[in-house]
Design brief:
This protein is an all-alpha fold and 63 residues long. The protein contains 2 helices and no strands. It has one domain. It comes from Steroidobacter gossypii.
């Protein structure tokens, strides 16, 4: 039952993302894997990859 519910949530999430992308009328969809970090030097590649992976610093280490 757990697997079935997990698959249902994943399918609904994918459908929601597809619908919102279509409603936004983007001409095409690009992922971070094709972003040219060398072209835009002000963008920190490591920081963007951490944000995309949802790895955030622990609040315990913050002053």
């Amino acid at each position: 039952m757990d697997r079935l519910l997990t698959e249902e949530v994943a399918a609904k999430t994918a459908k929601n993302i597809t619908m919102r992308t279509n409603l936004a009328r983007f001409p095409f969809v690009k992922g971070l894997e094709v972003f040219e970090f060398g072209y835009q030097l002000s963008v920190d590649k490591k920081q963007i990859q951490q944000l995309a992976a949802a790895h955030f610093p622990s609040m315990a280490r913050m002053p």
